[in-house]
Specification:
With 135 residues, this protein is of the alpha+beta class. The chain is 39% helix and 21% strand. The protein has one domain. The model has no long low-confidence stretch (mean pLDDT 83).
Length: 135
């Protein structure tokens, strides 16, 4: 089973579980001011990019942060090892999806240069055609 399929099943289970557990809370959501609407094809392109980014970059940084002999900025590497500290942008142009994953600035880490990635995803098979990691 592909990571995309696993993520999709997890999201479906979470949505169903949340819907039942929070049915009373739905009335308090202002659906006219929804923060995020994700087209399915954009979600799939982002999922493909995330799978690669997670395996190649997030996992490497998590290993570095956990290494007892690591002598770099451990706080920064720990921050850059979690996807929730990134913004993900998806667009379509020149017949391909373009996904940019970039570190999100925060009070914890106010300035970051590098640490992200740029992907080009082929739309027919949703495969990575090109990737560039920023240092």
């Amino acid at each position: 089973m592909h990571l995309y399929q696993v993520i999709r099943k997890i999201v479906c289970v979470m949505v169903l579980a949340t819907a039942g557990a929070h049915a009373a809370g739905r009335e308090s959501i202002d659906w006219s001011n929804t923060e995020v609407v994700i087209r399915g094809d954009y979600y799939r392109a982002a999922s493909v990019a995330y799978a690669d980014f997670s395996n190649e970059q997030l996992a490497r940084r998590a290993r570095e942060a956990a290494a007892p002999d690591y002598n770099g900025d451990r706080k920064l590497v720990e921050y850059l090892s979690r996807i929730e500290n990134f913004n993900i942008e998806v667009g379509f142009g020149n017949g391909r999806y373009h996904v940019r994953i970039s570190p999100r600035l925060s009070a914890q880490v106010p300035g970051i240069f590098g640490g992200g990635a740029y992907y080009i995803i082929e739309p027919k098979e949703f495969k990575v055609v090109d990737r560039q990691y920023s240092k």
